[in-house]
TrEMBL record:
InterPro entries: AAA+_ATPase, ABC_transporter-like_ATP-bd, ABC_transporter-like_CS, ABC_transporter_ATP-binding, P-loop_NTPase. Pfam families: ABC_tran. Keywords: ATP-binding, Nucleotide-binding, Transport. It comes from Mesobaculum littorinae. This is ABC transporter ATP-binding protein. Coiled coil: none annotated. GO terms for molecular function: ATP binding; ATP hydrolysis activity. Residues 5-234 form the ABC transporter domain. SMART domains: AAA (SM00382).
Amino acid sequence: MAPIVSVKDLTKTYTGGVSALKSVSLDIEEGEILALLGPNGAGKTTLISTICGMTMPSSGRITVGGHDTVRDYRKARDLIGLVPQEIWLEPFEKVHATVAFSRGLFGKRRDDAHIERVLRQLSLWDKRDAKVIELSGGMKRRVLIAKALSHEPRVLFLDEPTAGVDVELRKEMWETVRELKSRGVTIILTTHYIEEAEAMADRIGVIAHGQILLVEDKTALMQRLGAKRMEIELQERVTEIPQGLAAYDLALGDEGRRLVYTYDTQAERTGIGRLMNDLQSAGLAVRDVHTTQSSLEDIFVDMVKEDAA
């Protein structure tokens, strides 16, 4: 099956020579959630704006549902819903009218039942007759999502959708995104909240300096790049690591009361058994042991550091 969104060799250079995107290629499968991670200025918003037809590419080709976003702009754009970072809403318009008007902009026939479903899904139905200016910041962001869904798009772009939203509302919005996915909507999410990507995404894309560093299944990525860390609590404090343990590249922690051992989860052998034997041979008594897995944030930070080096 062809990808719902296909980006091939996309570049975007602004007047003055600033290169925001550098030969970006990316395929997005129908029905998936792709989280796009990257630091400020990485090119996330430029990439979304170009796919949505709001910014013209300098070179390369983009198709949405098989429609070229330049030659077939209207057909491609009809398939896309966009929730931007900025909250741009008519302050004195009522919620229901705001969302229904967006549907009309795409040439869709009036469908009060669909607008009601969208508003109920986003917990906005009770606010349908409220003016936008009367809403909280979180509710305004929900209105943006409702507007983006008003014309029944197949692809939804969420550009930092939970920025400035409290934790409880953020989790409610995660549930909304999962429900949209269950109905077959393809979702591309940019976020600064690593836990957001870790909780929701099927695949993770990392972008830095206008280039895609990788796009990979989230679980496979964490298995491939994630390291496990074992912390060994000692019964007695040590001032240095014994010479017999030098091969393990251990680190001292907690003022000598703890040894830290990092190992590759994909390696054929972790070396843990041998390490425990050698600890005993070195005269070190172990009080407790626990392990932790690298988070997606650890992996992301390491990748961006490597790219900047």
